[in-house]
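FAQ
Q: What does a multi-component entry look like?
A: The components come first, one per line:
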Amino acid sequence: MSVVSLTVRCFALSTDGYGAGPSQDLQNPLGVRGPELMEWLFQARVWRTMHGEPGGDTGVDNEMAEHAFDGIGAWILGRNMFGPVRGPWPDESWKGWWGDEPPYHTPVFVLTHHPRKPLKMAGGTEFHFVTEGIHAALEQATAAAGGRDVRLGGGVATIRQYLRAALIDELHLAVRPVVLGAGEPLLTGIDLRALGYECAKHVWGERAMHVFLRKRA
Amino acid sequence: MSVVSLTVRCFALSTDGYGAGPSQDLQNPLGVRGPELMEWLFQARVWRTMHGEPGGDTGVDNEMAEHAFDGIGAWILGRNMFGPVRGPWPDESWKGWWGDEPPYHTPVFVLTHHPRKPLKMAGGTEFHFVTEGIHAALEQATAAAGGRDVRLGGGVATIRQYLRAALIDELHLAVRPVVLGAGEPLLTGIDLRALGYECAKHVWGERAMHVFLRKRA
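Then the predicted structure of the entire assembly, as tokens:
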């Protein structure tokens, strides 16, 4: 049995159940009103420091964000989280939302139906494009993680796929006191209890309720 | 314009969006696993005092529960919240879940498709059975409330009906760090933003995140 866990960390959820706003595109990578989900992070010192801004709150939310990258050896991302391009890759020009040096600093496995050569970025991030589905991506990420955890970054559709397959070991949600009204429902229609998930822990932040779901061993 | 508000208070919601567990019946008035929604209340001093038990926590959750009955002049309940009887009333024997002296102490308007005579209980509660739908129940409750607020007690299906009609002025949710996996989804498929609702306030309790949604004036 593998000792590597598949973990989702700091994934924001609105009170009405959305993990992203509607109409995601280049201008709205989190969907319309999606940024309301992320206010707990945008105000955190660690986020502001990452973006070269002074100040920011310290506290529980900041601590959660700070440790969200600890012990991660590889990432898995859905295609739409990598970028707004849909269908076959027209060329190699899209290199993710994050500029030359993405915040991952590990191998990142991007789920897609359309093959593409690996893409090496500054700072140790290398994007690998996996066309063989979620199990293959998890195998490759686990092998690349070198004994550390694999973090599933999202988006919503990808998390739902892995949840339905009960492949996620820990799901940390940042439940926000906001309603989006529309968007991508994260947990709707997924019977988490039948899949073996329970709330193992919760921590009150300043702008989010942090809920840690774990699969029973 | 009426000064009376229709308010929902302390309605519990699981992290995965359920307002009640599945398979509600006489043994499981909150549905299977439904009590997990109510732990924030069951541990509160006000609840324990109401049930003749010593102790219980004081704090934010207790305070929320304590004030949930303030300023209420009438209640509206769905049929299923009044009891497990379905279809035409076989007789007058079912008198609610709450014994001889229900906790309402006001007129209570019960939505049903099946006529029944009003039912007077000890302590000022009088159940009226309304067969003409949600608008009629609200009119009757408003008239009976004598200038105070009308509280909509639930259950889930009734709250959804009133929400979709944008008739609820304030919806106070006690969002719990638990997952039920199945049950009655409270907000799924209702576009709260399009209906004019926003989070006006939130308060961290000990066992729940209290979220207050209000309709823009």
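Q: Is there any commentary attached?
A: Sometimes. For this entry: The longest strand of chain A covers residues 6-14.
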